[in-house]
Amino acid sequence: MSEPAAKAQEATIEQDLYKKREKIYPREVHGIFAALRILAMVVLLGLYYGLAWVNWDGHQAVLFDLPARKFYIFGLTFWPQDFFLLAMLLIVAAIALFMFTALAGRLWCGYACPQTVWTEIYMWFEQKIEGGSRKQKKRDAGPRDLAYYRVKATKHGVWLAFSLWTGFTFVGYFTPIRELWDAVLVWNLGPWETFWIFFYGFATYGNAGFMREQVCIYMCPYARFQSAMFDHDTLIISYDEKRGEPRGSRKRGKPSAEAGLGDCIDCSLCVQVCPVGIDIRDGLQYQCIGCAACIDVCDDVMDKMGYPRGLVKYTTENSLEGKPTKLIRPRILVYVGILSIITAAMVYVLATRIPLEINIIRDRNVLYTETNEGLVQNVYNLKVINMDQQAQRYNLSVSGLEGLEVIGPTEGIEVESGAVVDLPLRVQVDPIELKSSSTEIMFHIESVLTPELSVTEPARFLGPVLR
User: Fold this and answer.
1) Contact at 8 Å (CB) between 232 and 289?
2) Higher per-residue pLDDT: 352 or 206
3) Which of these three, 227, 253, 285, is where a domain ends?
4) Is the pLDDT of residue 279 over 60?
5) Contact 233, 318 (CB under 8 A)
């Protein structure tokens, strides 16, 4: 094979393995679903950027104070010991996502996913600065003159400013945002704060400004395994092929039957408005994020042609085949059951949660010792953790054996909010009271100020058995 032919073949192979991204210029679309996407964007971004500035009970309403190991969420204070609640919350979120996907397809992707929401606002900036899709295409294909760079610089300046504000807000959920703002004004940021502001900001700038649909198609795993949750009763966006084919252009208002065509006029507007660049008429595709832009634009075209809406619509595969759609089905019941159980358990744990914990560590070096008085003695180290928002004083008692005596502090034990106090104790008893070599005893600790704030934990008392 000649050298030019070999290079041509190599180029073909490279082209097959990797195709350079072609920028998508989605047209602006109006309609009920576009309005819902805008509403979702405003609400979600409003919560993200505004919630950090809301105070609750004298401190930031939502604050993850890592140095102090305190996590404030609307009046509730959580500690690292409450990590299992986060695990339960993540399980609930995952199962809820599975359930809603089985019911309604990719509504999460189309309306609430952070990638979708931030891409929407970045595209809005782009359209306000550069103009619509036609102007953007014309500018990118035209000369690189001063006007071109002026518009591009303006757009990227706005994008960068918004990205840095996004990064600043993100860090504001870990460092009190008002303190962080004062530090920014005098540029007195810590190294980690500086890193995360710029890292999160530029991640947003890259994902929402440049990568956009690439994140959804290639990086997001959800697009790949969503089909495992779909069935013939799942709500999807679909083109009604029976009604639309054969497609072709015709004069406005001319009935399809007279033209010998289906209702699709092959205007390709559904492709032009798609943010991931697919043709919904090719059938269900994993790239579709369920944003419904194609529904809005197709309904608008149908109105202008005098045809009924719904050529592209939310539907199910069973509905397209003329079969009834079943909302309640076994997988949904399973999801609802699991979700209800875990949610109820989490609510119960939160409702009965006591902001006090004691960890009892028994001295393992010596099983037990005998005092000069003939008493059997065990050594324990208690860690008292005050997870309340105020300092507390506690009283300690031990039960489980007759005549138990505690040597060590048992009254007025002071523990600051969020503090851990080590409490070494010796517990002794007359060996005649021991019925076995290992007996369960109970440590009970109770707040002096708030008696209902109390915890009882078991421990083992070891000793000889008198025969």
Assistant:
1) no
2) 206
3) 227
4) yes
5) yes
Whether the per-residue pLDDT at 376 is higher than 90: the answer is yes
Question: Is residue 223 a part of any domain in this protein?
Answer: yes
Nearest Cα to Cα of residue 50 among 177, 199, 200: 177
CA dist., res. 94 & res. 83, Å (int) = 17
Q: How many domains does the chain have?
A: 3
How long is the chain? 467
Q: Are residues 253 and 398 in the same domain?
A: no
Q: Exposure pattern of 6-19 as b/e (b: 16+ CB <10 Å)? A: eeeeeeeeeeeeee
Q: If you average pLDDT over residues 94-101, what whole number do you get?
A: 91
**Does residue 9 form part of some domain?**
no
| DSSP code of residue 400 | S
Tell whether the model's pLDDT for residue 234 goes beyond 90: yes
Q: How far apart are CA 231 and CA 85, in angstroms?
A: 32
**Domain containing 220: what range?**
15-51+105-227
Q: Residue 135: which H helix or E strand, with range?
A: helix 133-141
**Residue 366: is its pLDDT beyond 60?**
yes
Is 191 a member of any domain? Answer: yes
